[in-house]
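Q: I'm writing up a methods section and want to include an example of the input and output format. Could you take the sequence below and give the corresponding predicted structure tokens, formatted cleanly so I can copy it straight into the document?
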Amino acid sequence: MNAGQFEDIAMTIGIGVLIIFMFFIIYDLGKRSKAGKFGMAVLFFALGLGMLGFIVKTVLVELLDL
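A: Here is the clean output for your methods example:
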């Protein structure tokens, strides 16, 4: 394994952990603000949309490089 491969694997794992942590932050924000089920859904939709865009962009770039 060379440095480039290690960097790719570490970046993928690091970004995955960061996305999971951001979902936890969104959940905690909804829980502390006592947002109901609908409020939680709106929080996850609105704030999670940015992360979804990043994931879709990454997948598209990988597909177009093939």
